[in-house]
Amino acid sequence: MKIVVDDLSGPEIAGFLDEHVRQMRSITPPESKHALDLDGLRGPGVTFWSVLDGDAGDAGDAVVGCGALKRLDAEHAELKSMRTSPALKRSGIASRLLEHIITEARAMGFARLSLETGSAEFFLPARKLYEKFGFVPCEPFAAYRPDANSTFMTKVL
């Protein structure tokens, strides 16, 4: 398995992200959905990583996870689009990717990393993962507003 910066030009990552956005839309009311689409992830100040599994045989590397870092200001970044292939949940991919993104955020000079995730039961494993890595609940940040469907978390780097 390897983690690589992705320019989001390949059809496999486009399909992987489309599945993510569709899943979020099925779980979260439209006014509470904050997942970025491909254009949003290609925006300025966003670095996107794919987790690739080389055990895909002749098909090459399969996308099994992804995550992004969005610059909010010189010292603050937002974690976006964390996703693991549903078939591989609880296999350590998300932990490895989150550790990688935190390390990269520090190397980029950020002092704080924040995120928004769902408050529904479906998102409990994600919230527990973030807590394990030192994220704590916080108030809405950047352009977010209080929302019963959202949980906001932050970590000082």
Short description:
The protein has 157 residues and is of the alpha+beta class. It has four helices and seven strands. It has a single domain (2-156), classed as Gcn5-related N-acetyltransferase (GNAT) (Aminopeptidase, 3-Layer(aba) Sandwich).
Can you describe this structure?
This protein has one domain (2-156): Aminopeptidase, CATH 3.40.630.30. Helices cover 29% and strands 30% of the residues. The chain has helices spanning 11-27, 38-41, 93-107, 124-132; strands at 2-5, 46-53, 62-71, 76-84, 112-118, 136-137, 150-156. A seven-stranded mixed sheet has the order 1-2-3-4-5-7-6, sandwiched between helices. Strand 2 (46-53) and strand 3 form a beta hairpin. It is globular.
Largest sheet: 7 strands, mixed
State the CATH superfamily name.
Answer: Gcn5-related N-acetyltransferase (GNAT)
**Approximately how much beta-strand content do the residues carry?**
25-35%
- Write down the secondary-structure element order: EHHEEEHEHEE
The share of residues in helices is 25-40%
Rg calc: 15 Å
Question: Order of strands across the biggest sheet?
Answer: 1-2-3-4-5-7-6
Shape: globular
Tally of DSSP β-strands? 7
The helix/strand class is alpha+beta
Specify the number of helices. 4
> Total domains, how many?
1
| C-alpha termini separation | 26 Å
Low-pLDDT runs: none
- The CATH level-2 architecture is identified as 3-Layer(aba) Sandwich
Query: What is the averaged pLDDT score?
Result: 91
Q: Can you tell me the CATH topology?
A: Aminopeptidase
Task: Return the CATH class.
Answer: Alpha Beta
